[in-house]
Amino acid sequence: MALVARREDALKAVAKASLSLGAPDVITLVADISDPEESKRVVDQTVAHFGKLDHLLANAGIGGTCLFEEITNITAFTKLMDVNFWGAVYPTYYALPHLKASRGIIIVTTSVAGRVPTARMSFYNASKAAMIRFYETLRSEVGSQIKITILIPGYVVSELTKGKALQKDGRVEINEDARDIQVGLFPVGQTEKLAQIAIDSACRGEEYVTWPDWYKPFHLLMSLAPEVLNWYSNTFYMTRSDEKQSILIKRILEATGAKRYLYPNSILSAKKE
C-alpha cells in the first residue's frame, strides 16, 4: 500500500497503524497531488516499488465555508478546486493504464454537497459536483476495464468537521463557529465506519455509496423538489457571517445544546491551529 499526503508526520502515523493491522508492505510518499508532476511521481514510484497498481483511492480535499459575496480574496479559491477536483483527476490520469492492466478499482471521495447546493459552500459544492460528473463520465469511457465507486458521504469526522477550511480572506484555518453553522443539526458520522462501508461496497462493485444513510433522501428530493432544498438553505443559512447570532441554524443549535449529542468528542475537542 502506498500512502500519499503533504504531511509526513501524518503519513507515518497512518503507515504505522496500517502495519499493525496486517498490511504486508506500506510506503509513504510526501507529495502535493494538486501538482500534476507530483501526481505522476507518486504513481511511478508506487509502480516501481510494487510492480503494479491494483487500486486507487482519491481522497484529498479542502473545505470552504462562507457566502460567495463575502469573499475578499477570490483568487485564493482556485486552491479549493485544485485540491478537490484536480487532486483526484491528476492521479487518476497517470494511474489509468496501470489500473486497466490490473482491472482495478477507483474509489473517489466526493460529497453530498455535490448533489445538494447548500449555501455558504459554493466552491466546495462546485468542486464535488464536478468530481461526480467527471467520474461518471470516466466510468462510461472505461467500461468494465476499471470499476469506479463514487463515495458520496455526508458529514463525518474530518478536518472539515473540526472546523478547518478556507476562509473568505483566503487563509486556511479552524473556525468552529463557521463549522457549527454549516454542520448544524446533522449528526456527524465516524470515519472508520465510512471507510469500512466504502471498501465493502467497492468490492461488491457498487457504483455509488451514500453514508450516513439519512442523507439518501436528499438525492431524490433534489430531483423531485429542488425548491424545498433551496428554501431550507435560504432559511437556515442565509445571514451574513458577521451576524452569526441571527443565523437560525446556529440559534437552534445553541438553544437545544444539541451539539454535544450530535458531534463526536473528537471534533468538539479540536485544537486551534
Automatic annotation (TrEMBL):
Its main location: membrane. Keywords: Oxidoreductase. One of its GO terms (molecular function) is oxidoreductase activity. SUPFAM superfamilies: NAD(P)-binding Rossmann-fold domains (SSF51735). PROSITE patterns: ADH_SHORT. Gene3D superfamilies: NAD(P)-binding Rossmann-like Domain (3.40.50.720). It is a single-pass type II membrane protein. One of its GO terms (cellular component) is membrane. It comes from the Eukaryota. PANTHER family: 11-BETA-HYDROXYSTEROID DEHYDROGENASE 1A-RELATED, RETINOL DEHYDROGENASE-RELATED. This is Hydroxysteroid dehydrogenase 1.
